[in-house]
Amino acid sequence: MGLPFVEWIDDPKQLFVCAKCGTCLTGIKHLVSESFRGGTGTAYLFNHVINVNMTESIRRVMTTGTHWVRDIDCRYCNSRVGWFYEMALKEDQQYKEGHFILELALTKRIPGMVDIVAQKRMKSDAASSSGESGSSNNPSVSSLSFEEEKEDVTV
Amino acid sequence: MKRSTAASHDPASNGNSVTNFSLSRLFQLSATERQGVTTRRSLRLQQAYERLVAGGESPSVTVPINSPEPHASSDGNESLASSATPNISPPPVKVRRMQVGGNPAALNNRSVGDRLKEKQKDLQSHVTTTEGSSSTAAAAPSTSTTTVALNSSVTTRDKPLSDRQRNTVRVISQYLREIGMTNTVETLTDESGCREEDPLATQFREALEKSDWGTIVEIVDQLKDQIKESSYMTLRVTFLEELLKTHFSSGDLIAALAVLQKEYPRHPDFLDRRKHYGSMLAADADYLKSNFADSIVMTQKSDLLDLAEDLFPPTFLLPKAHGSNGILRDHKCNTLHFPNRTSQIISDHEAEVWVLKFSPNGQYLASTGKSGLIYIFKVLNDRKLAYYNRYMLSDELDGINCLSWSGDSNFIACGSAGNSHFGIFLIDIHRIVDVEFPVQDHIIRLGVEKFTVADFFPSPRQHRIVCADQKGNFTVHDVDHDLSDKGNDFEGLRVNGLYCLKDGRTVLASDTLFRIRSYNFENMTDLTLIEEAHPIVSFTLDSPEERCLITTKSGGIRMWCLETRTLIQTFFGSVHADIVVNACFGGANEEYIASGSEGNNRVMIWKRDEKYPVKYLDGHNGSINAIAWNPHFKNMLVSGSDDHTIRVWSSVPPGSTFVEPVPEILSRVDEDPRDSPVDCEPYLRHASVKY
């Protein structure tokens, strides 16, 4: 259907790309939680993912409860990469709403790139101010686990 | 052209000048005057006029319209123009400045014509010798009682009226006649020496009424020099056919035969029509009579008159009251020089067509798409392409997303789609390669595992390519010297699109952070030019490199000025959210912008300063990905779509009753592409040509 237009995430540290075609999906700055499990193994929760197509909303029962989810496909190669939480029926699960799950086995991690303009700013910052490194534009992301629960998905 | 008003002669004026003398303004002002609204300027004019009249001198004629300075005579004189309403009774109708003195009480109650005639008699009793070379028109109305003024007016009238003046006078006299002021018209005709209508035109009208086609054809012949060849042919043929029809309906076959043999043009375009009428000769008499019954002929008279008005020179037959345009003719070049019909459909690609690019010299078109095949077509004329060459790069490609021509139109650089990163391929378009076995020797490859987009610098003597990809590689290669990276590269960029400027040094690149930045590889400087608010799908520049057209994902197509780096215009209507769609400048003076669209299968064309499309071209069955406007033939547009076809759009002449169906052509390797003749004459004939 035409040459698909793919976008990229600006993340200097790490990017997650589709394992099959390499299309950029998200960056580590959008990571919310690492303690999820999908059908293929560990999965991460992100709050922003691009270049994906979503299916219609499906009601699914998972270990943590009943949720309405949409499955996610890579826009370029149409291979599955995870799912998206549309609605959670239990109140304590509602933090996941609007977030994406990417299964690690279906994605790859590649190193990020510092943008050319940000590079210049870093250099000028380092030159102008003493001692203070203006290096990281992004706050260092530690994996915040809201829950230690593991989640099983009935696929 | 700006002319100073009469009031500017008046020392009390503030020096404002009337811009843009137009008849509509003339009539406009007279309308307001009728309602009794006087403007400040009109008051001044009126005062000035009164002063003159009181001083016993009526305004004399001054310099013709076209001269930019105020006339040489004394500044007491003014020239005033009539506003052609009964209320205002100004002196002679000299089309110059607008006289809006609206207070009838101050002026005479006599009509213009009467006063003119009186003055005329006065003059003629005074001056008999100064008639001289100036026409009778000249002496009479210059209504000055003093001989001095008369002399000056006579001498200035020695210059005959320019064409423009004549035409304006004629329009005025037409209008005056319509509202019934025949006296004035006569006086005007006498004075200006311009007849309202060419005697030939009156003859034409009479002949048309009487259906005297023979006379009409002669008249058309007489005007042969003044109208375009194509118009001449059309007119001639049209009237000859009317003549033939009358002959046929009266059963006079011999006369019809004579006409066909002698008069009907032997131009190959008219061959079919000629044959058609020839075959009529052999037909049954009754059939002929019924076919060419009088009623059919009669109803077309108004159409014929319209056609004649369109095609004759505008000053010949004054079209009746087209608003206030009078002798001005609607700008019609758009239909002649604008693509509006498909003239060819090429379905060589058996896959989605993604990129289309014309070579810089406008002779070739390169096309590529999902299959990884590159087809090169040759431009035969402004409607047609012929197959030239094709290349298969590699089986493993997902498709080719980027094409760039070298400055000398001999090489093409292409980049592969997706993240496969096969590098940049350089191909020589004139080399024939056996497609079954893609031989890698004929193809130069740059940067294996790197680079998805590339652009040649437009200089025809060098071959320097800038290559980039979305993984941070961005270098310039000089292919004539060596194929390795020169070491000059910029890092930290994910480049989506490239454009090399004509100065041979600067490159514009669009990246994934919604920016367009310029890079100079010689002194390694870079600069952010445009920061968009939406993801940039593709971008292009116009030929003078002043404006940048950006196709954005969710913001429409936006045109930015590169010098001031501001947004000039946004164009709405096309959809390009999910796929890469190109837009391009083109058309006469690069005034138009064309873009494909995803989903609604239409080519949309905007005028450069309007937000909404002025034209849609329908016909494709899939999203239109690529579009290109021929730099050489301004009326040729090609579009490539997901329905595996490339369509060539071209202009169909206006007023032609010959509408051609659109054929499907499959260009195959039937003939040696080098044998096809290249016809560089744009097609502008009104004729029944089968495409």
Q: Which oligomeric form is depicted?
A: heterodimer
What is the CATH C level class of one domain in chain A, in words? Mainly Beta
Low-confidence stretches of chain A: 133-155
Structural category of chain A is mainly beta
Order of helices and strands of chain A: EEEEEEEEEEH
Number of helices of chain B: 16
**Principal-axis shape of chain B:** extended
The percent of residues in helical segments of chain A reads under 10%
Strand composition percent of chain B: 15-25%
- Main pleated sheet of chain B: 4 strands, antiparallel
SS class of chain B = alpha+beta
Question: Which whole number gives the mean pLDDT of chain B?
Answer: 69
Q: What's the end-to-end separation of chain B, in Å? A: 45 Å
Task: Please outline the helices and strands.
The complex is a heterodimer of chains A (155) and B (691).
Chain A: E1 14-18, E2 24-27, E3 31-38, E4 41-46, E5 52-54, E6 58-62, E7 65-74, E8 80-88, E9 100-103, E10 107-111, H1 116-128
Antiparallel strand pairs in A: 1-2, 1-10, 3-4, 4-9, 5-7, 6-7, 7-8, 8-9
Chain B: E1 3-4, E2 17-18, H1 23-34, H2 40-54, H3 112-126, H4 136-139, H5 147-157, H6 163-179, H7 182-192, H8 199-210, H9 213-222, H10 229-249, H11 253-263, H12 271-281, H13 285-291, H14 294-299, H15 301-311, H16 333-336, E3 341-346, E4 353-358, E5 364-369, E6 373-379, E7 385-392, E8 400-405, E9 411-416, E10 424-428, E11 444-446, E12 453-456, E13 464-468, E14 474-478, E15 495-500, E16 506-511, E17 515-520, E18 525-531, E19 536-541, E20 547-552, E21 557-561, E22 566-571, E23 583-586, E24 592-595, E25 602-607, E26 615-618, E27 624-629, E28 637-641, E29 646-650
Antiparallel strand pairs in B: 1-2, 3-29, 4-5, 5-6, 6-7, 8-9, 9-10, 10-11, 12-13, 13-14, 15-16, 16-17, 17-18, 19-20, 20-21, 21-22, 23-24, 24-25, 25-26, 27-28, 28-29
